[in-house]
Design a protein that fits this description.
heterodimer; A: about 220 residues; mainly alpha; about 85% helix; about 0% strand; elongated; B: about 280 residues; alpha/beta; Rossmann fold; six-stranded mixed beta sheet; four-stranded antiparallel beta sheet; 11 helices; 10 strands; globular
Chain lengths: ~220, ~280
């Protein structure tokens, strides 16, 4: 019985590692597509979201079946509860990659050739490192660096405010590009939300490690 | 609190050493201490079966005792109403207080067992009618008035959630009941003696899941009026019904805490290993 339990836990862990890799790849491709206006890659990311969703569903089913069949407690219980919540956040981050690519395609189809928003690269970079950090913390059973996550989330929030200001200015100066900038508003918002999901994952890892619930 | 060292065993019991009698154990408020156990050790001859156990058990809570076979949890349970007194070469040191009084020095044994009832692993109905099983304790307490006895029997059977099933067969033999019904009858028999504490030693281990569910529901209802201490090998049962859980291992109390804490974030790695099934 215990052997089956350990095996099932191991399988879940392996699938979560694979899911993390897929998510990091989607995020990397999303940025490459955005920076290089690579619509083929953007379309690939957009369509590839289904594979992430499928893997999320598979992991949720494994998590639920372990909870139901093996009645886990203590650290195992916290791991499974945290994983279930983390899966929702991972799924949302994957969705946001697809959303960004969707609006990139829509923007580029207007053929206005707008340059990349100044500061977006830095914002995306910080957010991306947050997601990467929390996935590493999750998969390696390391403790989350809470302060580092908070600092990075603050940087992303400041960048969001600053980019919103910049977009407002650009719309006022170039109203003919308002539709492009509306897409940028959404893209910047998605990046900001992805950082929030990374923070949520960090909170779940803290629960897994300490049983402390952070809201 | 000053510790006392006492030796209570077969020999002393038979030799008739007198103990102070205090039959009027006062009722206590919910949340107050029902049992205070301090530095309790128990020996069976040379075998040190319980080692320096200290624990407070609060009124109107369900306390689950868990641990692998032979860890001392049933021995501990039985000590609380002095069922080890007649075990040859059994020696207890330390302090066990029931509602503030030393159970060996300040509480009469009959009064203690009246206030601290016990339900065993196997249902133990007497080969008598259902009515007589429940009326047995009150009769021993000197109640002979038929109406009063009938009232106690009905109230006890209702409290044990078996009145509706048994009211039309009170004069039939208790031995004809199913295992689950027999166990609830035994709980009713315990309640009829008007205890304040019910000790349960694996009360559902011989029962099917539906009967187990009934006993668990009953325990949750009874804790409104009684303090319950239950020995169980069933981790899910401990999680489902208890407020506090105590984990014993090799005669030691390894951890005692709120059940939610014990099953989500135990402090001791040995507890975690046991409850996750990694040993024991």
């Amino acid at each position: 019985m215990l052997e089956n339990y350990e095996k099932a836990m191991g399988e879940l862990h392996d699938r979560m590692s694979l899911l993390s890799m897929k998510l990091e790849k989607a995020m990397e491709d999303t940025w490459y597509a955005l920076e290089n206006k690579d619509l083929v890659l953007a379309d690939k990311v957009y369509r590839g979201d289904q594979a992430i969703n499928d893997l999320v569903r598979e992991c949720m089913q494994k998590d639920l079946s372990i909870s139901m069949l093996h009645d886990p407690v203590a650290r195992d219980w916290r791991y499974l509860m945290a994983t279930m919540k983390i899966l929702s956040d991972i799924e949302r981050i994957g969705d946001h990659c697809a959303d960004i690519c969707h609006y990139l395609i829509r923007m580029e189809n207007l053929h206005h050739g707008l340059p990349l928003l100044p500061g977006l690269k830095e914002m995306y970079g910080v957010m991306s490192s947050m997601v990467s950090d929390v996935l590493t913390f999750y998969n390696s059973q390391e403790k989350t660096d809470v302060e580092l996550m908070k600092d990075k989330d603050d940087i992303v929030d400041l960048a969001f405010d600053s980019l919103m200001e910049e977009i407002s200015r650009q719309i006022a100066e170039h109203p003919e590009y308002a539709r492009d900038y509306m897409s940028y508003v959404l893209i910047v918002k998605y990046v900001e939300r992805m950082a929030d999901h990374a923070s949520n994952i960090a909170d779940c890892i803290i629960y897994r490690d300490t049983s402390r619930i952070i809201v | 609190m000053a510790l006392t060292t006492t030796t209570y065993g077969y020999t002393k019991e038979r030799s008739g050493e007198a103990r102070p009698v205090s039959p009027d154990i006062a009722a206590v408020e919910p949340g107050s201490l029902t049992f205070e156990i301090n530095h309790m050790d128990l020996f069976y001859g040379d075998h040190h079966a319980l080692k320096d156990v200290s624990m407070d058990i609060r009124t109107h809570e369900i306390t689950a005792l868990i641990g692998p076979s032979g860890c001392g949890k049933s021995t501990f349970l039985k000590s609380l109403n002095r069922r080890n007194d007649l075990v040859e070469n059994c020696r207890i040191t330390g302090d066990i207080r029931f509602e503030g009084k030393d159970i060996f020095r300040e509480v009469d044994l009959l009064a203690l067992r009246t206030r601290v009832g016990m339900v065993f692993q196997q249902p133990t109905p007497f080969p008598k009618s259902i009515f007589e099983n429940v009326a047995y304790g009150p009769r021993l307490q000197g109640i002979s008035h038929k109406g009063e006895l009938a009232g106690i029997v009905e109230q006890s059977l209702r409290q044990a959630a078996c009145w509706d099933e048994m009211k039309d067969r009170l004069n039939q033999s208790a031995l004809g009941l199913s295992g689950g019904q027999q166990q609830r009858l035994c709980i009713a028999r315990t309640l009829a003696a008007r205890p304040s504490v019910i000790l349960m030693d694996e009360p559902t281990s011989a029962l099917d899941p539906i009967s187990t569910q009934k006993i668990e529901d009953l325990a949750l209802e009874l804790k409104e009026k009684y303090t319950i201490i239950i020995v169980t090998h069933n981790m899910q049962q401990a999680k489902r019904i208890s407020d506090k859980t105590a984990f014993f291992l090799l005669g030691e109390l390894i951890e005692f805490d709120d059940t939610v804490k014990m099953f989500t974030d135990p402090s001791n790695p040995k507890t975690e290993e046991y409850i996750t099934g990694r040993f024991g």
